[in-house]
Please model this.
Amino acid sequence: MKVSEDRVAGSEGVGQLAARWASENPSSEALSARAHRSLPAGVTHDVRRADPFSVAVARAAGSRKWDLDGHEIICYVMGHGALLLGHGNAEVVDAVREQAGRFLHPGAAHELECDWAEAVIGLVPSAERVRFTSSGTEATLLALRVARAATGRPRIVKLAGHFHGWHDQVSFGTDPPFRGPDTAGLPPGLEADVVVSAADIDAVSEVLARRDVAAVILEASGAAWGTVPLPAGFLEALRRETLATETVLIFDEVVSGFRWSPGGVQQVAGVQPDLTALGKILAGGMPGGAVCGRADLMGALALSPGDPHRVAHPGTHNAHPACAAAGVATLRIAASGEAQDQGARLASELRDALSGVLSRRGVAGLAYGESSTFHLLLGQQGAPDSLPLSKLKAGVGPRLSSELHCGMLLGGVHLFHGSGFLSTTHTERDLEQTVEAFAATVPVLQAEGLL
Ligand code: PMP
Model:
């Protein structure tokens, strides 16, 4: 409590909403203090860092979770987008429980890995073969390796602002200033083989014309699950250019897969990539990822040791049975498209209502997004497709971010960095409470001079 009282007393950088939220959450604060003694920054994922500290969760069910101090919170983080069916879906939990009772790791073939692969092939239009990994990061890593092996070319093109996990090759140009390395610790020289391009077909085509690019990788939804929409016709044009230059086209559908539609963005757009990286919903809230795509490209994984064209891919937990069980149960429910439609309908309603709050308060900005997602754009005039990457993805300042998130938490709503995912478990009542929390928060932000 001491720290909270200091904050209330006006320590620099802490706004009134953050101070109030901190004072009402002593258990989260105590856990954060404990975590700082064993975990760098007190967290286990960079995006879970929060100011003044992270909310700590005791349990979750459906669209809700309960923090350690007993507050009930509507969750829009939804397992970083993995929980299309909400927290604790009964069929998913039962499938995991049953599988845990059978075996966790047979170190051999098992039926669930076939069930899972067949489900992916049944849903994702471009999927002919599947190789499971343990995460989305591993999926993009493997997809790039397959592409290099197939083409014999060294370079990859990624788009500015697009995120593909944390491995070295994709750790360029994702965060402001959207060029150069995103992290310390990258091997020197790697940048020579990673071209970060604007999402501009002329710019990408110019690079591909040199015919030394193995693959173009991009978030098919636009950067950060649609935070930065792609120009109209971009996917089609990119498909044409990559075919013309024999470059592998990789869609990263780790977020958009099974969410934008049962077959992801590629099904909605009618554009088929050569390879697709999957994760999140694929494994129904358990760890998991996959690369799927053309049988001829994926065939490199089937070559015998000693063959110079063979792509090696071990991985202790690939297609882990408990993850496969959750994935199969989730994809079975997600196959009809109803879950996606229901989430998208609610998200559209929520985006309109949140935008309405901003316009009634005379604040520039709006809530936008596609499918069952939303993104808040605050303090900017104009439609998202007319704004540059730097305005859309740079994020709000730390003080506004902290005040916004704490204000929403005080109203019982957990946003995911000014954005959110809806699930089949969110309700009209959840939306009403979310809009009420936003309507109560925005005037405080205005009064503090943050909006
Ligand atoms: N690609 C995209 C588009 C992602 O959003 C993420 C994770 N947020 C990843 C890849 C990496 O997935 P994971 O966190 O499972 O490694």
